[in-house]
């Protein structure tokens, strides 16, 4: 499949992508993960991106497009891909459209995970992430804590709160989402590409997305 996952931070884009990956081998491409890996590795891109990310602001479109132009042409994308956290602005969506045309690829759909603000706000403030970049398993202090506090069940690395998951940065990310990313819902609806899913339980949400993709 070749899809875009839309929805506010905390809607479950990463979890849905991870589960869908098992169904047909499409790669999960999360711009947030790629950026965090660059920050950790201290690359030029990481140095430029970090100041925006820590405030919950968007990284400039051009940096994202340079990064994605390379990523979308890597060999593993041939089987299909799920874009998580990208595009995030109308200019990114326009640039993605041009890029895909150039490399002769057509998207199947844009899937909007339509989850209410109070739900995602609660999820984000209680979310914790495995610090190991190869793992990045997501936990929740209320609903899904690691078996040993602060330690990843899968790899034993520290489980941390992301630096952009302070309350202030979270509120800012939601505002940035409403202003800059939510307009993409109408953008893809106008292209006849939009599908929507809204289940609150993650396993039901994954099923709902799969059903929508079949129709
Ligand atoms: P979220 O949980 O907010 O969806 P992500 O992991 O997708 O978080 O992104 C974290 C941060 O990385 C964003 O707040 C933003 O600073 C930056 N980022 C990720 N993807 C993009 C993008 N497509 N354009 C601009 N900035 C991005
Ligand atoms: Zn881990």
Describe this structure in words.
The chain has 215 residues and is an alpha/beta fold. The chain has a domain at 2-116 and 180-214: P-loop containing nucleotide triphosphate hydrolases (Rossmann fold, 3-Layer(aba) Sandwich), CATH 3.40.50.300. The chain contains nine helices and eight strands. The chain has helices at 13-24, 31-41, 44-55, 61-71, 90-102, 117-125, 167-181, 183-190, 202-214; strands at 2-6, 27-30, 81-84, 109-113, 127-130, 138-140, 159-160, 194-197. It has a five-stranded parallel sheet with strand order 2-3-1-4-8, sandwiched between helices. Strand 5 and strand 6 form a beta hairpin. Helix 1 packs across helix 9 (202-214), helix 4 (61-71) packs parallel to helix 5 and helix 6 runs antiparallel to helix 7. It is globular and about 45 Å long. The two termini are 13 Å apart. The model has no long low-confidence stretch (mean pLDDT 94). Zinc ion binds at residues 130, 132, 135, 137, 152, 154-155, 157.
Task: Please summarize what this structure is.
This protein has 215 residues and is α/β, with parallel strands linked by helices.
């Amino acid at each position: 499949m070749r899809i875009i996952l839309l929805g506010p931070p905390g809607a479950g884009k990463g979890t849905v992508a991870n589960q869908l990956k098992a169904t047909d081998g499409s790669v999960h491409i999360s711009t947030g993960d790629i950026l965090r890996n660059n920050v950790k590795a201290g690359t030029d891109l990481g140095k430029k991106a970090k100041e925006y990310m820590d405030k919950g602001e968007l990284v400039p479109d051009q940096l994202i497009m340079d990064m994605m132009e390379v990523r979308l042409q890597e060999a593993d994308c041939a089987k299909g891909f799920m874009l998580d956290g990208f595009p995030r602005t109308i200019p990114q969506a326009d640039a993605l459209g041009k890029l895909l045309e150039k490399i002769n690829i057509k998207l199947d759909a844009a899937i909007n995970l339509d989850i209410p603000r109070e739900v995602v706000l609660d999820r984000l403030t209680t979310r914790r992430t495995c610090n190991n970049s190869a793992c990045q398993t997501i936990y929740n202090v209320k609903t899904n804590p690691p078996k040993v506090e602060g330690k990843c069940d899968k790899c034993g690395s520290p489980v941390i709160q992301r630096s952009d998951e302070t309350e202030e940065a979270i509120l800012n990310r939601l505002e940035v989402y409403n202003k800059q990313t939510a307009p993409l819902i109408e953008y893809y609806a106008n292209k006849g590409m939009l599908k929507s899913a809204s289940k609150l339980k993650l396993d039901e949400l994954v099923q709902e997305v799969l059903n929508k993709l079949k129709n």
